[in-house]
Write a structure and sequence with these properties.
The structure is a homodimer. Chain A is α/β, with parallel strands linked by helices and about 425 residues long. Chain A folds into 2 domains: about 290 residues, Zn peptidases (Aminopeptidase, 3-Layer(aba) Sandwich); about 110 residues, Alpha-Beta Plaits (2-Layer Sandwich). Chain A is built from 13 helices and 17 strands. In chain A, strand 1 and strand 2 form a beta hairpin. In chain A, helix 2 packs across helix 6.
């Protein structure tokens, strides 16, 4: 079929099965369940392998074929009519934070699987293959960096560097991957960076905007840019009882004044700037000793490169202006420019949401995703659905079955449409 | 002899030997030396026992007698003419912080020993015995609380509680004390709280005031009061990239605003208030997660009980006023009222400094000392000498031989004068 699929019995989205989709979420949620509603299913653990085995079993029941690349990215294919055509790829990840939720990543994988199943049940023959992908180690909780699998796939991270990465116990990605592949075997091998016609990723928003504005579908236009800084402040330890305040060089107070100065720099009535001091450590961290050393991190994000440059370039000067006689070192540890997704794909998402009468709005992703790496390779888009109060990376992460189904219907329409281009 | 001793060949202060005093400091500094100029000689360690053994050897060479009480406080006696008279006691401690200096405590012990030696060499017969004391575990670095030995001596801390205290490795005071006493044996036993005619403690100031004002002798009129608080702030963890700032409950920012509010509360043009936030911890302490929980401590000191009450009683309200939607718990963990030393003893210190033409000034101790516990038992005083830039609890702690000798001369005069009352 070609062109916009009608919303009817024979469309792929009409064949999306909300009940199956939800029960698959529940099944995956049992793997690594913490007993407090969340999961601990970190990358390349036995739990991660078991979740992959479950998806492989669902795929095998349909006769879909599976393959894996050298960093463990797992692909499940529903064949197209043209074996030479590049696939439309859709997916996300199954690994979680140590106290993770049941939707971050999982939804994108299960939605993509549902699209393949729905296409099968609706007997829709696409020209291009439909590939489901499960990226390795998106979270970066056990092995840094985040989005490891998609970064290696896209050539942004050398395979050897990724394989040599160690977890906190000294286990390498290489060793953990060998174990995970042995536990969830996939015979076929896939190269990195094979031609992809388009990449789609469905995901919970991980923020509160869709819920607060009553939207069901977030048409993700891109991923905001990110700059990270590490600030070290060195003052002088002194006795809390004896040293007059005027003679102190208190690294903690200096760091606090720096943060206050940065808050003023980053003040934004539109609430678009994301400015976070998440790590903050002091030494000697003793109640009766004036702090001699403080360390803090800055996580600054914005969708617009010029704002990222203008404010980010002033971070060091603001810190220095509030040093209170302390020494200060500011290092920029990460600079990730904004990513723009394909306007064509975004247009297809909007049109599909429109056809399904779903309230939708454009949104910039605050979090990074595997889609960031794919955006340099092919037309890429993301579909967000709401999550309760924006809570994510948290065992309390929640999304409604109806929203997950709605997002999957939009994904199905867009994937099938692109697979016929 | 009675009355003020003349400053001449036969006075005790004239017999003070600055060279011996200084070389004894150097000898003690070798025990537990870190190689960076400081010492690590924590309470009841083999190093602490070795330092005591050295003092016992110097005392034995003079024929002074030694005794020890059940918490390990060590007494060295030069007999008086009246065996029934209560002694004048002077001393301090030999234990140090993990990165401690060579004068904090040590000076008070060696100055007291020098007084006994000088009295011996000047052939001065006092009516009362002169007792040197080495208090156990003043620093509280290995075993909490600080001033443990003098607290038990004065009845402020039950012996059983002190003996059951464990260090970070699970070793009890009881076990460590048995080892230390075996390594530095003292056969004679002494009861707690025996009658003391007066207590004198010489000490480095541990603050910058004497040096800054050109004074050699600080006439310590008392120890300022102290209130400690522990503040726990609970917000909500959120994704740094997705959660708009207006919707966050950032425990780190709330804690910082509380500290700023407290700084405004504690603002004091006279720079008498001591206000310190020394411990500050956040969770999850991750660069890209909004802080969900912050904990900090407040160390607030002032010489005047009414200021201690007025400002201290407002701490909780100020914290609550800056909670930014977070939950806050404020607990007062310590409330130590100001200690006033004996005006009579202070008068004798002033007079002695005057006779020696030493610049002196009244001063309130910012730090706590063993003298705090003695002040409830007997007329008590302290003599401060300057230390470089006020640096203490630090391997860079420094005091000049001339200032140490000057403080010891004043101590000698006052001790001998009180020993003839």
């Amino acid at each position: 079929m070609a062109g916009s699929p009608p919303v009817g019995r024979t469309s792929v989205s009409a064949a999306v099965n909300p009940d199956r989709l939800w029960h698959r979420h529940l099944a995956i949620a049992r793997i690594g369940a913490t007993g407090r509603g969340g999961v601990n299913r970190q990358a390349l653990t036995p739990e991660d392998a078991e979740a992959r085995r479950q998806v492989l079993a669902w795929a095998a029941a349909r006769g879909f074929t599976a393959s894996v690349d050298a960093i463990g990215n797992l692909f499940v294919r529903r064949a197209g009519s043209d074996p030479a055509a590049a696939p439309v790829v859709s997916g996300s990840h199954l690994d979680t934070q140590p106290t993770g939720g049941n939707f971050d990543g999982i939804f994108g994988v299960l939605a993509a699987l549902e699209v393949l199943d729905a296409a099968e049940e609706a007997r829709i023959q696409t020209r291009r293959p439909l590939d489901l992908v499960i990226w390795t180690n998106e979270e970066g909780a056990r092995f840094q960096p985040t989005t490891m699998g998609s970064a290696v796939f896209a050539g942004a991270l050398p395979l050897a560097a990724a394989l040599d990465t160690l977890d906190g116990r000294g286990v390498s990605v290489k060793a953990a991957l060998a174990e995970a592949l042995a536990a969830a075997p996939v015979p076929d091998r896939r190269p990195f960076g094979f031609p992809v016609a388009a990449y789609l990723e469905a995901h919970i928003e991980q923020g509160p905007i869709l819920e607060a504005t009553g939207m069901t579908i977030g048409v993700v236009t891109g991923i905001q840019g990110l700059r990270w800084y590490r600030v070290e402040v060195t003052g002088e330890e002194a006795h809390a009882g004896t040293m007059p305040l005027a003679q102190r060089r208190d690294a903690l107070l200096a760091a606090m004044e720096m943060v206050q100065g940065l808050r003023e720099l980053m003040a934004d009535p539109s609430d678009t700037v994301r400015f976070t001091v998440g790590r903050f450590e002091v030494q000697p961290n003793s109640p009766n000793t004036v702090c001699g050393r403080a360390l803090f991190t800055i996580d600054f994000r914005h969708p617009h490169p010029q704002v990222l440059a203008r404010l980010g370039d002033r971070v060091e000067a603001v810190c220095r202006a509030h040093a209170r006689g302390c020494a200060v070192e500011v290092a920029e540890t990460l600079h990730s420019p904004p990513t723009a997704f394909s306007p064509v794909v975004a247009g297809l998402i909007r049109a599909a949401a429109e056809r399904h009468s779903l309230p939708y709005a454009d949104i910039v992703s605050g979090a990074t995703h595997d889609a960031k790496h794919l955006a340099g390779l092919c037309p890429t888009g993301m579909i967000f659905v709401p999550c309760a109060r924006g809570i994510s990376h948290n065992e309390a992460e929640r999304a409604s079955p109806a929203d997950l189904a709605a997002g999957t219907r939009v994904l199905a329409d867009v994937v099938v449409e692109l697979a016929n281009t």
